[in-house]
Please model this.
Amino acid sequence: MALVRVISSDGAAFLVSQRLAKRSGKLKTEIETFRKSSDNSEAQPEIRIVTIRAEILRLVLQWLQQHQNDPVLPANQNEQDGRGDAEMGQSQWDRDFLAPMDLGIVMELILAANHLEVKGLLDITCKLVESKITGRTVDEIRTAFKLKSDFKGNEEEQTRLENRWCVEN
Amino acid sequence: MKDSPSSKNNPNRNCVSVSERRKESKIEAPPHPKNQGTSMDKEETPTRLSQRDCKHLPALPLEMWEEILKDLSPIDFLAVINTCPQWRESLESNKTAALFPLILPILGEQIKMICCHVKNTFLTWRAVNRGARRAVNKLACAESSSFKKYYERVTAESTNAVNRYSLTCQQNELIKRGKTEILFEERIADFLQHFTAESTPSPSLREFEHPFFSGAVTLCIENKGLNQPYLNSRRTLICTRFGHQISALTFCHFQPFSHDNFNHFMELLHHVPNLKVIRLDGTSKTGTHHKRAQILERLPNLKHLELLDFGDYGGSPGPEDYQLGGILLDKYGPNLKALICEEMFLRAGNVFPSRLSHLSNLRCFRLEGWFSISHLELLTQLELPFLEDLQIFEKEKYFYKSDIGDQKQGMAFIRMLNRFANTLTHLQLLAGIPPYEGVPIEEDEEEANVVLHKLTRLSSRVFNVTSPWFRDVFLKKCPNLKKIVLERPGNDIERDLLENGVLLGFFEKLPNLEEVEAYWISHWKKPVAGLKVKTGSAWSVIFRRKEELVQLPEPVE
Model:
């Protein structure tokens, strides 16, 4: 089985099959680039991911491992309104996988899935955050994400006026 | 990995070394999330920086580090928490706030909504804090600040490839439909009242930064008789005060310019120094009030201008030497990276060919029209030494025309492509090419054999691919094609061709082809059966349903 070493920003190395790694668009490209530039076809690619730390990279690879036999992208079962990908693609395993994570980890996972081009993982993590960020007031969002208003002077009032101009009839 | 409380005073205690060798772990069967901690624990854990590795880091109390790190940009914050466990731990309470601006653009694309649910989401995020406002502003002005993004959006809209359900797309539509962008006559007074309180100017109102936070504005200039001087002065006031924020400007004018209006148009251009995109919508005649040389002299130097969009511009092929589009092309042609126009515009007597001869930096060219011989010959005369993306788009999808389909037309197409053989990387045939079925006659063989070495991506209407000429002549010129995108079928004939999979066999002789992508609608016949489909290092077929990739057929050996 062809393997690839994937190294996190904090130096942890994961040895995974190339078949699994290629489920990530980014890793697939890196492996193919390595193949083209390497004289030795048997050489083992080594890929450093400088923007993802070990704990997060491990979660991504774990999710990929679980979903290695899935179609590349889950079917959209409800095309009437464009929704449905994440709900339909999310298994009990996914729910258990995400359940213990705090919001900070989920946000790191979104960034990692986006960087590594793992669409399915991106779908389910974004879906998790969606409920905390859509249809909420500014104060509710600030509370959920532990944000503070750092607007200076009349910036907040200006922003409110600008927004109002966009939506008022 | 948690640190012992006793080590908390040493900021370097938990840093990791990339240079140190470490054990490798092989990912076996993953544990169930509820039972984590078995096989995945075989993964190698990061080791800490040795004393020697860390000695260059100043030993400061943790509180000082927190003070130093608290104002990091989101990107720097991510870099810090990705490299040093101790800093990560000390910054843990700030993590969601710091990463919030980074995930907004991703959420904007991932979250899907129908329009009625969308109303204030984007704008609410914008009001959360400064970082969020910056992130949303960046999203909103993405296409007005990059000619590539603008060009891609125009392409995506004409091929139905745009993801209309994404929050970003929905919100941008909302903003476009709203008042921010469109300043027709009746809205000008409202705008000034909202943003400038013109009757009682206040210092704070001069500080408004983003009334046009998408960076794109449409101004409609019409002849309004006695009301004209008032409207012109109001528009001038808006551009004087906020013009530096505008990066994409659409001018609508549906009547020939009056003398005053034309002067007004010229004046407005002087107040928008950061323009990257100009789009003309309406008619082209400027009247006979000014000489071309005078107009050119009065046009400002818009050094950031990269794209002219004349796709909805009613250029008439008359002798007028004052057509605005032609004059703008004269002035700004050497700067342009992208041009969008109709075939009729090129045919206008004052535009072609001399005015297109100085588009020396053009990278992307979208021509709207169809494949007539004269159209192809027009293109063949262009000097575009850096052209990378050529797109021919047909607004109305003609399949057959009485005057196409002969050998001359096929070779005109080949000669046109050869003109750009050294630079073209992406060809988009969003129009019906001539269904010529012969092979080149002898004297044309040299032209037919010119290879488009750099062409790696082809987008085409389904119908084009069925032409034997396309397969036998055109595809041989493109040995390095990696991806073919078949656009959404425009009718039942094209749909049948896709459903029956007959197209895929045409591509077998392309040695570097990796992927053929086509739209797919869920209620269509399943495409897999009977298809010869390869994956991996050869090529695969990805079917698209609406905007979503939905199916990757299993390999068939």
Observations:
- Residues 73-88 of chain A have pLDDT under 50 and may be disordered.
- Strands of chain A lie at 3-7, 13-17, 46-48.
